[in-house]
Amino acid sequence: MSRTKVEQHPAAGATLVVLVGLSIAFLLFMAFMNVVKNGNILSEANLLYAALVFYAGAGTLYLGFGVTGTESYIKFASLATWAGLVANTGAVAHRWYEAGHPPFASLYEMLLSFVWTLAALTLVAEKRYGVKVIGTVTMPVAIVGVVLMQLLRSEVRPLVPALQSTWLHVHVTLAMLAYAACALSFALAMMFLIQDKMKTETFLAATGVFTVGIYAGILSRFERWGGLNVVAWDADNKTELFISRGVRLLVTIPDLGWLMLLVFSAVAAPLVLYILSQVKKNENFLSIANRAVFISILLQALALVFFLLRTRDGQYASLDAEGLYPTSLAASPFILSGLVAGIFANLLYLLLLWRRQDLERLLPDTEALDRITYKTICIAFPLLTLMIAAGAYWANRAWGSYWNWDPKETWAAITWLVYAGYLHMRITRGWRGRRAAYFAILGFAVVMFTFFGVTYLLPGLHAYA
After folding, report:
1. pTM above 0.85, yes or no
2. So what's the pLDDT on residue 140?
3. 233-234 and 239-240: which strand pairing?
4. Residue 323 has what pLDDT?
5. Which range of residues forms the domain containing residue 262?
């Protein structure tokens, strides 16, 4: 019987590998035919497109491995990740050559470096530590990062005076290495919780909180008659429109707010059902909640499609100025990335729900995962420390002060304190297991807010980053 199963795996594995391979080949061929006329095949945009295709193929195969346990998927997923990393490296090199400095001067360039580092560390974790399903978490993050890069301003701009320093290279290199290591520790901590027999319904609640948070943030742009406010776009200068310094011009897309409110209700339903199951001590609510997750994914996909159709190159009225103003996906990159992240998070939960036993069989044991998470944070923490020290020294040279309590500096310090707390409690109190994993997850959440949230929500001296 077992021999029959072994013989079935290669056939099933070959089918998905061939489908993914053909999809990659088709997408790359279509891109090649589109750019061959201008003769600029190895442009930065084309290299990033190739990286996105390969990362998406790798993510599909990693997920396929998580679902079926077919070993051949890992081999081809690794090859696709390597190919994506090569294309990503080409994009980094191209940017470095065109700009005349390492790609660290803007959010676009920092994402470019971050995704490269994350892909490289994924391969290290897989080969060195045998965490074969690490790509099921890291590749979606890489895909969202590359998609976000497509929407951010990517033109090479002259460096502002504060950035014209060798310390830029030192400071941001340390930041990207540290943040990628934090992302890896997050993925490892999540896998530890799976292997540590944390209840599946707890992951349901966490996924619900995460997705509700995304749509709550989107609905902060809700207009009372059902529209959704998005930032207006200046197509000529490829930048957002501003009413005054630091105040963006918002336009209202009719009825899109109602759709987002409907999806918010759908993504909140599993969380509400989970709470009811705990209060009423009735597991029937959980089975309903799991079906509700599937429905919420369909509605999230619908919201994503409508957002793409309505926001891309539309023209809408504004409450703050007369006339119609254009919109663009490039003006709302974080709404788009949030919609995509919500779908990925719910799909990963369904993967856990349907194939938990297979995932537990494929993962290293809890001691190994706990140890690898600790080692990863032991790499991340010195990098964070050196990053802050280099930034302080650079700030003193640029602005005459080592520390200005700028929002970016403050949240970098908070990030450092979270990981310092992790190491302190582990070394002095012997914290292991779930408490340590929670710290690693909290740390990465703070990292993401420091990296993205502060940049767009809290203006300061780091506004260009």
Report:
1. no
2. 83
3. antiparallel
4. 83
5. 215-333
Give the span between the Cα atoms of 260 and 211, in whole angstroms: 12
CB atoms under 10 Å from CB of 404, counted, come to: 14
135-155 burial, b at 16+ Cβ within 10 Å, e below that, comes to: bbbbbbbbbbbbbbbbbbebe
Q: Of 206, 341, 342, whose CA–CA distance to 263 is shortest?
A: 342
Q: Please indicate, yes or no, if residue 272 is contained in any of the structural domains.
A: yes
Over residues 382-389, mean pLDDT: 88
CA distances (Å), origin 226, targets 13, 114, 259, 347: 47, 37, 8, 28
Tokens standing for residue 437: 């994993």
d(CA 22, CA 237): 38
| Contact (Cβ atoms closer than 8 angstroms) between residue 293 and residue 348 | no
Residue 4 clears pLDDT 60, i.e. is over it:
no
Where is average pLDDT lowest: 184-188, 252-256, 285-289, 394-398? Answer: 394-398
Query: DSSP secondary structure string, 121-180?
Result: HHHHHHHHH--TTTHHHHHHHHHHHHHHHHHS--S--PPPGGG-SHHHHHHHHHHHHHHH
Residue count (the chain)? 465
The alpha carbon of residue 8 and the mean position of all alpha carbons in its chain are separated, in whole angstroms, by 35
Number of domains present in the structure of the chain: 1
Which amino acid is located at 389 in the chain?
A
Looking at residue 256, its pLDDT comes to 92
Q: Reduced to 3 DSSP states, what percent helix, strand and coil does the chain have, rounded to the nearest 5? A: 75, 5, 20
Q: How far apart are CA 243 and CA 247, in angstroms?
A: 6
Asked if 232 and 251 touch (Cβ cutoff 8 Å), the reply is yes
Q: Which residue has the tokens 């005076």?
A: 161
Band of the pLDDT at 399, cuts 50, 70, 90?
Answer: low
| Residue 119, in any domain of the structure | no
Report how far residue 175's alpha carbon sits from residue 181's, in angstroms, rounded to the nearest whole number: 10
**With bands split at pLDDT 50, 70 and 90, how would you rate the model's confidence at 259?**
very high
- The verdict on residue 451 lying in a domain is no
Confirm whether 317 is domain-assigned: yes
pLDDT at residue 19 greater than cutoff 80 = no
